[in-house]
Amino acid sequence: MKNPMLEVVSLILEKLLLLSNLKLFSWSAAPGEEQPPPPQPQPQPQPSPPQSQQQQGKGNFYDIGSFLRGDVLEVPRTHLTHYGIYLGDNQVAHLMPDILLVLTDDKLLTQRVVSNKRLILGVICRVASIRVDTVEDFAYGANILVNHLDESLQKKALGNEEVARRAEKLLGITSYSLLWNNCEHFVTYCRYGAPVSPQADKFCENVKIIIRDQRSVLASAILGLASIVCLGLAPHTTLPAIFIPFCLWMAG
Fold first, then answer.
1. Catalytic residues
2. What's one GO MF term for it (predicted)?
3. Which of its termini does the chain have fewer beta carbons within 10 Å around, N or C?
């Protein structure tokens, strides 16, 4: 039989040991709580990067600091290349179709970045303007090539200051033609003294290839018959179905 006195003494000893352990842990943690953490050094402000690095940080791949007044800037798109003349101070003169020019005289509206809808409708209505935008708005997030036409056209360029002055004199509303007066015509006139457009020439060559291909005659005849079947026998369906294949056959 167990001695009750020993049990009481052992219980008291266990309680004392438990209390001593708790106090020991609290004492060991107390100094850490009372002492504040060492002050962290304040980060020193970094100097702002140059303008060229800022543009590259935004995802653009060009160095504005390397552009010279009168340089030809080229922005490759999916199927076409857009051109402009650098005027200095982060400004580019370029020819842009814009339907808004015939709808309003409010310069606050027309000076906004031209959207795709405004551009397409401007091409259809053949109205444009030679306008000034920032390099960022001109590039529209794409890469920029500088004076690449000098190598591809192999023509002697005018002086950069003369190029910029020509561009500034032409600022304002102008007519637009995909084949005869586009942004490339504007740039080559300012840069070389004669308006040319290799892109328009290439487009015309592709059209010639399509016309000369006798398969175009067969394709146009099939489309003409399909339009007659779907829309019925009428002058607006019958005449194109006859004359378009005939003209393609004669031209080929």
1. 183
2. phosphatidylcholine-retinol O-acyltransferase activity
3. N
